[in-house]
Amino acid sequence: MTLKYCQGPDCHTYHTQDRLKGIKGSKTYQTRRRSRLLYDAFCDTRCQNDWLSTNIVRALNHFGRLKEAKHLTENNAWQKTYDWNSNHDMIYVYRNGITKEQRPLTEQQYRDTNYTLNTGE
User: Each residue of 57-82: b (16+ CB within 10 Å) or e?
Assistant: First the structure.
């Protein structure tokens, strides 16, 4: 298991016991090493938020910003969901978030991540 360093730019500046390392007389606060990190990069939400505050604009510019509003229409508002019938059996349906229309699904269709009724953006 590879230990990873927290990517928070100020992780080493937070005074917590687990960051304090070294021998008596020459201890320093260090970036945390963890085997399980939030989003595989941060030791806690404070460090995650520090990174986002520093890098969010650059990340949006790199990966692309929305240029126009997205629209949920009758064509792309279909979502897989399930419900319970009167016998307490699970029934699978595609439900349109705008029209509230429902179409039955098999359990196999429900679990198939590639199966969709969506036809637009």
Answer: eeeeeeeeeeeeeeeeeeebbbebee
Residue 82 backbone phi and psi in degrees, to 5: -140, 165
CB atoms inside a 10 Å sphere around CB 111: 11
* Whether 76 contacts 119, CB under 8 Å: yes
CB neighbours (10 Å) of residue 32? 22
Q: What is the pLDDT of residue 37?
A: 61
Distance CA 81, CA 79 (A): 6
Could you state, in order of their start, the residue ranges of all structural domains in the chain?
A: 4-63, 78-111
Per-residue model confidence (pLDDT) at position 71: 93
CB atoms within 10 A of CB 49: 13
Check residue 17 and give its pLDDT: 87
